[in-house]
Design brief:
Muramoyl-pentapeptide Carboxypeptidase, domain 2; 6-stranded mixed sheet; elongated; alpha+beta; 7 helices; 2 domains; Endonuclease - Pi-scei, Chain A, domain 1
Length: 382
């Protein structure tokens, strides 16, 4: 099957598939302003489901400073009290969300522009672990400084894609975003040091090559050995934020936030993004006799690790660190992702190679990018 046909099929699946994620809205959705003191989502800013933990202050001498980008959007007014242009500096993700919000503001209130009163901070004006120090947070008003608009401004900011929005003050709203590293490169991955199990014994995932056979699970939930066909993503030198999920039987799974884990459910398993796993959810872990053993999640946390590896097995599943995971990411449905990746599995079978190129596989990158346009937001990792 050629790539265009697969993309058309994926679009059709998104349009016709069952479930509430595919419901079509009839008419515009009514937006509800935030009230003073409210934040959305209703969790801590530093939760992995929101903007995530601080990763460290960025100074002008820091190597990460070059990752901050200036925003010269003429539709945005920057206060720039310092006169250094610091308020224009931000991460690429923050810039994209801000530019989207600027359009929404002009559409909501013709003649009014978005106003940034605080962006990246280098003058210690915030609390110790503020995301302003990383260019991941902005404080906003409207250009007319009409405080009656700020509740709706906060709602528009959330709709524009900011990961955490807080109607923090009567004078402004606070918005922040996830790190670029936590969003990944388009594929869910495991770090160097993650353990897989081959027929010869346990191995570091970094040593895997196409043709190796690793422990996985078939569609009935039975443990099997499945061939590694290729890598959806592979970069030994990348440093990234990972979600670490610990179960009561001692199993600890480490993966990127957008990766799909396969949790225990009445019907066998259910897919969940790693970022959405909660204490009390049940991991499926390696058990004796070719069956999996359920174990409840007791903690989740965020860690930074070196290396990203996303092997693609023929089964589409893999046991990593003794817990069951999908080989896929970004799309909430394991079965949909597995079907859409069928051509890649077919291509890998007929172009067998021990080569392990670095980066995201071109097919996966194209498919995930296309999915941003055809899949409802409830089916995508955001």
């Amino acid at each position: 099957m050629r790539l265009p046909l697969v993309l058309l099929w994926l679009g059709a699946a998104a349009a016709c598939g069952p479930g509430r994620g595919f419901t079509r809205r009839h008419g515009p959705r009514r937006l509800t302003p935030l009230v003073f003191g409210q934040h959305d989502p209703n969790i801590s800013e530093n939760s992995i489901q929101a903007s995530g933990p601080a990763e460290g202050r960025i100074t002008r001498e820091d190597e990460k400073f070059r990752d901050l980008v200036p925003n010269y959007n003429p539709d945005i007014e920057f206060k720039d009290d310092e006169g250094t242009g610091a308020d224009r500096l931000m991460t690429q993700r923050c810039k994209e969300r801000l530019n989207t919000l600027a359009i929404s503001v002009m559409n909501q209130w013709p003649g009014v522009r978005l106003r940034v009163i605080e962006g990246w901070d280098e003058e210690n004006a915030h609390l110790e672990h503020s995301l302003h120090y990383e260019g991941r947070a902005v404080d906003l008003t409207t250009s007319d400084k009409d405080r009656s608009k700020y509740g709706m401004l906060a709602r528009l900011a959330r709709e524009a894609g900011f990961d955490w929005v807080f109607y923090e003050s009567r004078s402004y709203i606070h918005c922040s975003v996830k790190t670029e590293s936590s969003m990944g490169t388009g594929a869910g991955c495991f770090p160097s040091g993650a353990v897989v199990r081959t027929e010869e014994g346990p191995r570091d995932i970094a040593t895997l090559r196409p043709g190796d056979r690793v422990l996985a699970a078939d569609e009935n939930g039975k443990l099997i050995y499945s061939e590694v066909l290729t890598f959806i993503d592979r970069d030994p030198n990348a440093t990234r934020s990972f979600v670490q999920v610990s179960a009561e039987n001692g199993v600890v799974m480490t993966t990127t936030a957008s990766h799909l884990l396969l949790l225990a459910a009445a019907e066998g398993w259910r897919p969940a993004f790693a970022a959405d796993v909660r204490v009390g959810d049940v991991l499926l872990t390696r058990g004796p006799g070719g069956v999996m053993r359920p174990s409840r999640v007791v903690t989740t946390s965020t860690v930074v690790r070196l290396g990203v590896y996303a092997p693609l097995t023929r089964a589409g599943t893999i046991i990593v660190d003794d817990a069951l995971a999908s080989c896929y990411a970004l799309v909430r449905s394991h079965s949909l992702a597995h079907a859409a990746m069928a051509p890649l599995r077919w291509m890998a079978r007929w172009t067998a190679s021990k080569d392990t190129p670095r980066g995201v596989h071109w097919y996966a990158s194209a498919l995930y990018s296309f999915g941003d346009f055809v899949l409802p937001s409830s089916y995508r990792y955001r």
